[in-house]
Predict the 3D structure of the following.
Amino acid sequence: MTVLLKKDAALAELARMRAELGANEDTCLMCRLAAGAAVPEPIFETRELSVVLDRFGSREGHLLVISKRHVEDLSDLGAEEYLRAQRLAFDASQVLTRALAPKRTFIAALGAPRQVPMSFPHFHLHVIPIYEDDERARPARVFSWTEGVVVYSDDEARALSKKLRETWLRVF
């Protein structure tokens, strides 16, 4: 069952997942996710990018576009690679619109300059479906864990990823 966890519980679950995937100070969790180490497998991928379901997203269907190459800063990407990442984020937003019917979709390049509990020093884009049209849709509330964190069981994550993957194949 999809669960909305409070921030403290989500941080504990994220720490458990990091340990399970073998991510620590010496290994990047985003690199592991981009390589397909977590359940479910990527929704879509290219030679240099993966689109995955965020297992700790702010909304149901929250996706991540992750560089397969460990790149910590946007300035370390070439313009063409950045544009390909943005194109995948745009495509992911189209898939979310068709599959989940959000009112709108936010796309953002976030990430911390060093590893912190809720963020990673690895280039990635967030593609977040927004279902509300009230105060909960304000960016300050969407881009934080103040509203809670959507956490899926493995089976739910597989099912949602399958739905999004099938939609991707139909749309593109």
Summary: Helices lie at 7-20, 29-34, 79-100, 139-142, 154-171.
